[in-house]
Each structure stands twice: as structure tokens, then as C-alpha cells.
Amino acid sequence: MRLLIACLLALAMMPAMADFSFRFGDSVVTTGDSPGTVVRKAGRQPDRIVQLENRRGAAVGERWEYYLDNKQVNFEIRDGRVVDIQEVR
Predict the structure, then answer these.
(1) Residue 4: is its pLDDT beyond 70?
(2) The whole model's pTM is what?
(3) What is the pLDDT of residues 12-60, one digit of tens each?
(4) What residue segments make up the domains of the chain, in order of their start?
(5) How far is C-alpha 88 from the chain's CA centre?
(6) Taking the alpha carbons of 19, 25, 65, 75 in that order, is the dihedral positive or negative?
(7) CATH no., domain 2-88
């Protein structure tokens, strides 16, 4: 019974986990990865880097944008780690 509940919980969490990873071919980038890991797994530098600022104009991070076929993938980087991944179609 515990195993069944654990499996059901794991399945319920899968859509939430999908928002925090992106696949470049055989490699997967996940939140917590370093910028160097993103470049290595993507196989190239981002197409665009946008500086992120707080309300007072201080730099708080970067958004790395990759333009792929029919979508854009954004990696938000703060304190040297990927904190969010978004796919834009």
C-alpha cells in the first residue's frame, strides 16, 4: 500500500518537475545547474543574455535566451545557478 501511494505521489509531481528541466538532445539542464553546465549541454553560448534588475536598478541575475526551431527557452540565472527554466512558443 505504501508503495502504491509513493508511486501515485511521484506521478502527481511529474508535471511540476517538467517545468524545472529542459532537454538539449541527450543532455538535460535542470535548476541548480551552473551557467557552464548550460553552455556545455546546449553545445553553444546563448543567443541573447538579458541583465535582470530589481526595482532600484541593481543587477540581480541574467536571463539566457536560446532560440530553437519553433520556440524560445529561457534560463534565469541568479547567484551562479539556474533558478528557473521557461519555454516560450
Answers:
(1) no
(2) 0.77
(3) 554 444 458 999 999 999 999 999 999 999 999 999 999 999 999 999 9
(4) 2-88
(5) 12
(6) positive
(7) 3.30.1450
Amino acid residing at 87:
E
- Name the phi and psi angles at 71, rounded to 5: -155, 170
Helix (H, G, I), strand (E, B), or coil: what is residue 52?
A: strand
Q: Identify the H or E element spanning 88.
A: strand 81-88
CB atoms within 10 A of CB 46: 20
φ, ψ for residue 51, nearest 5 deg: -75, 130
Q: Which cell numbers in the block locate residue 31?
A: 535548476
DSSP lists the bridge partners of residue 77 as 62, 82
Length in residues, the chain: 89
Q: What is the 8-class DSSP label of residue 7? A: H
